[in-house]
Amino acid sequence: MPDGYLMMVLHAHLPFVRHPEDPHFLEERWLFEAITETYIPLLSRLELLVRDGVRARLTMTWSPPLCEMLADPLLQGRYRLHVSRLLELAEQEVHAKQHSPFAEAARMYRDHYRYCLSIYERFQGNILTWVCQLRDLGVIEPITCGATHGFLPLMLTSEARRAQIAIAVRNYRKHFGCDPKGIWLPECGYVPGLEFLLKEQGIRFFFIDTHGVNFGTPRPRFGVYAPVFTEAGVAAFGRDPESSRSVWSAEVGYPGDSLYREFYRDLGYDGDYDYVKSFLHPDGVRRNLGLKYHAVTGKVQLHEKAPYLPAPAFARAMQHGADFVTKRVEQARHLAQVIGRAPLIVSPYDAELFGHWWFEGTQFIESIYRAAQNGGHQILPVSGSEYLGEFPIHQVITPSASSWGDAGYNGVWLNPSNDWIYRHLHAAEERMVALAQRFPNADGYLLRALNQMARELLLAQSSDWAFIMTTATTVPYAVRRTRDHINRFMGLHEQIISNQIQEDSVRDIEWRDSAFQEIDYHIYAGPRR
Amino acid sequence: MKRETLLPLTVKELRALAAKKGIPKASSLVKAELIEALASSSKNPAPTAKIIAPTTEAKATIKNSATAKKISATKKSATKNNSSAKTKSKKNAPVSKSTRTRKRISLTSPKRKNVLPTAISPKPLNAILSKFISTSSLRVGAPPTPHNPQAPGANPGLPIPDHYGRDRLVLMVQDPLHIFAYWELQAETVARAINDTHGGDPVLVIHTSGNTETRSVDLRGGNYYLSVSADQDYEAELALRSTNGALHVLVRSNKVRTPAPSISQRIDEQWMGIENTEGSFHELLELAGLPGQVAGANSVSRLRDQRLATWNWQHSGVTSISSAVLSSHNRSSSARLSP
Prior knowledge:
heterodimer; A: alpha/beta; 7-stranded beta/alpha barrel; immunoglobulin/albumin-binding domain-like; 2 domains; globular; B: alpha+beta; Immunoglobulin-like; 3 domains; 8 helices; about 25% helix
């Protein structure tokens, strides 16, 4: 019997960014970078584990907007172009850096971009096919998320919350061919009562931050080291703070190791402008290209960073993976003495941390499973469904309202930088519900307009926009997206209530915001009777 | 003594307080237990909503915004409740402070001086209306313009409505100790109320656990952050208070509850099992290739149909059983999960 169980959870999500009107839309690179640096490396490493007979269990969100983008032919075509250009650059780089300390890194990039193109061909541009294969092999348990990652606690109506969940479930079915058993609540945002909406949609488990469980009522006997059932019968897994800290912490986290790749030294800034110009966005502004040649090195200025050497860096990631497992075994043994049973340690992270931010992070993930197996599975990797299947009886509590945002509640998505959005989002919620109830049998362009209104509301609700406003990063784009979707929603609303639907207008908006072709606005009318 | 006032104190300070209050075994209690013991020992009724002066300066309420630095500057993702793995502050500017005027109303802090603003004395209708309403558009509580100015040349986005033509007061929970309130009022609603009350002081009336507090507000503001108590229900009304103290309600809010700030004192336990579905659950795991089963890569459609036929979570139920049963069950089942 193992000393404990380890549930690795990765949350893969990007907001829906697709601009058919602009062939070089800058923010579409978010997706391309994540595919190249996180999703393909991660899936590749999981496949290696299967090949080597290593037990791996990864519970992983594939958020609906991300699935929609990964399966979208327009973005697939643009991704291929993107990687082809990177490969062209990397081949030049191999030649240019062949006699320098950066030669190994240059060859690594060239080989990796070639590999990405081969993966693109192997799966006809859609890596979700790969995810399904790994799901069928028992390695990944894909779970869903809110339809557009809308922050559920700040929605005004239960209909809007229900729609985020129901449309996500339907979208999951489209991409994965079955119903999801688990959900990652967007931003881990929970308020009591959500569990009943999850149950309506057949969801069996969700994740919640540490204090959401620990402050639950009645007091959870095992803390976050066993799941709890809500009154609806949906299980909640609480985040283990200790294992989270070992990756996230600036003081003790692994990614700060001096051998690892430095994110902020990039060829896009370091290279001669005339040399890199043709690989930059057509606006000519220097930005990251993804080819980085320096290591973290230590607490030194950026210009003092040492050359990056991939081999020792990846070897260090393997050591860190083994260390992570050793510490989890120690943690599990200690916890077992405290709670009197083998604990479950739930370790959730943003997927894009691994590979994109922490370049060697996917090696770290792979090494965790190898180290666990080499250690005789003193700590046993499990997935969400698997654990509940084996341990089906748990304490019933009502978790506490919480999120995994800064300070643990709603402040990241509700503060003076972004509070202006809610009066618009709430008005849209109420208007959507009213029209869904008023038109139970719409068809033709009325049906299309109502469905498009639902898309616009969902896209406006994405928690990413409020988050970006808080962090003051790409604020203009977040503001623009919020305003555009609200505008289109209200315009369609006006057309419908004035009985003057403009077919050209509906078609244009459908073309611009094409997510969720399977959407059915009726979900906003309330629960089906 | 309220929990939220105890929360910032160190364990040492809490133990000293507990010792003063004669709480037994204070030296052996952990922080949460100390807070609960101190809060329980207090004779003060729970959430009195002492009104403290509103401030008109903008106050960003984002706490510890520096933790945002670990997040991609250009990407999604939450500001996790922990610190950064790498310092990636280059792309992450500090969180901007709002330049808009926002009101803060504290309903809890016993320490702050109670500085009430000058009450609005009855005035002629036109004067009242001009105070409340932008006469050019007859808008009340119009939404503010977006906080972040657009970069030069950036696409500012399509226009959005200033108002939605309805009376609305919405409360939203920000954290255990803060609620955000926004509102929109139609000019006709205000004018009618002023006619009925012959002018009056606009107030926000906050209800919680049998207590009611009122606070003077500027109806044109429409964005207020309220300092409140944790683990309480709140509702509010916007009203005009006439000279004789009568309230003419303009609009009522939704009801919200602030989260608990600490562990629950309830320790009674109930346990739930999955009834009737355990068999299908295992079948489902096999279909999904979990654990260790290998299914064909092209068998998704078949698996889907089988799953749909065998899976019915709606049949699960609640079972109250003892923890001893739980222990024995888990012991027996754990062997199956061994690799």
